[in-house]
């Protein structure tokens, strides 16, 4: 019986070993015990089936081993070589052998030399033309500020690798955060001639602005994009394409600097559940509590910390709490369970009572954040004729009414 079970296990294991789909995505990052020989032995039968190969930060592998491995991965669509010291000639040779590649990340010590090499290798140009996502890590030669002679070469590139990028959708530039007081010896600013090559770009990022080489390259690309008259994004309108949006964070930004006047920031989003407008500057944009109430009917969590949306200007030019807008918001968004109103100052007793009345309509409210001033009510001394005794049925009934109308909530008091 034992031998029979062992035989079944061995057969299952054999089928598992022969299943080449398991190696389609092969990751060697942080696999410090893997030697060059082990890598080559692994790839002898597996690499023809690999579609995603991650060798990021595998600095101990020899360049000829990496070149041999990638030459065997004919089905490769993703290749990550960040943190590996390869010459521009090696990188272009690797690119030329991977016609199906779509995602590529690498480290360069001389982006100018890389551009020149790309322009001389037709196969590399063809592969770059199919790339949709590129990540470039800058690791350039540097000079310290204490050097006797500091030489910095600035090159404004016209024939960069961008001239061959026909399908580029994202570009990520990685600098060196620990560069400190060192100065790169070479600064390259790309000046793209074929601007249409950047018309499909949807993501452009820079991880560290301290690195001058990465910063110069990033803003050079951004400046070229700014020359475009049209950006062919995946949809005509960001907001129209996100009717299924569930989480939206617009905190700590100026809306009028990002969205044009003819853009409705809060077009109807029936599936939106989480909206963060904390410290959001809304001047110049058509957005209010009323618009939120009409556009986000199924919202569950709303963060309005220090938001000017809670206030409106009166005819007399004074700014006061928008009671009507807040009431409409509560009535329309009856699924609200988390509200953050911290940083909003309300010192009027009548307004505070109205806020409490509105909040009492939310039967599913679980958490509420308020400023301390919203919980403080000043008690003015009454005249002797109007003063009531401390003990009595009237005073006791008032206490009971307050207790009966109080919901059990988690209340966070934020001091700003």
Automatic annotation (TrEMBL):
Gene3D superfamilies: Ribonuclease Inhibitor (3.80.10.10)
GO terms for biological process, alphabetical: SCF-dependent proteasomal ubiquitin-dependent protein catabolic process
GO cellular component: SCF ubiquitin ligase complex
Domain called F-box/LRR-repeat protein 18 LRR: residue spans: 49-133, 274-391
Stored SUPFAM superfamilies: RNI-like
InterPro entries: FBXL18_LRR, LRR_dom_sf
Full protein name: F-box/LRR-repeat protein 18 LRR domain-containing protein
